[in-house]
Design a protein that fits this description.
Protein name: WDR60 protein
Strand order of the largest sheet: 3-4-5-6
GO cellular component, one term: cytoplasmic dynein complex
Structural class: mainly beta
Helix content: under 10%
Distance between the termini: 31 Å
Largest sheet: 4 strands, antiparallel
Number of strands: 9
InterPro entries: DYNC2I1, WD40_repeat_dom_sf
Radius of gyration: 14 Å
Number of helices: 0
Shape: globular
Number of domains: 1
GO molecular function: dynein heavy chain binding; dynein light chain binding
Strand content: over 45%
Length: 112
Amino acid sequence: SDGSIRLHQMTSEYPFLQWNGSTKGQPIIALQWALTRPAVFFALDASSNIYIWDLLENDLLPVAKQTMPSERVVTMTLLGEPEKANGLLGIVLAKESGQIDIQYVKKKWALP
């Protein structure tokens, strides 16, 4: 609820890594690992900002942020085929009106 993200190992109750205030205090409403690239995850905050984290490129801050200004995004999920090396990765965004938007991710964050 405060925008903090914690990465845990299954063998410990304490976080392995923790990022405080990564969304400037906005609650995170969805977070998902990339299906095609294990070091990448996406977070959606309550202000419809999408943060892309690539832990191999930078483990301190998100590598990109995209604001969805037209309408509030209420949730997201990712689509892709991890068994294929084509690097196709999409973000499915559900908007407050019920409209669904699919956007494709740059290859550098999608390739295995």
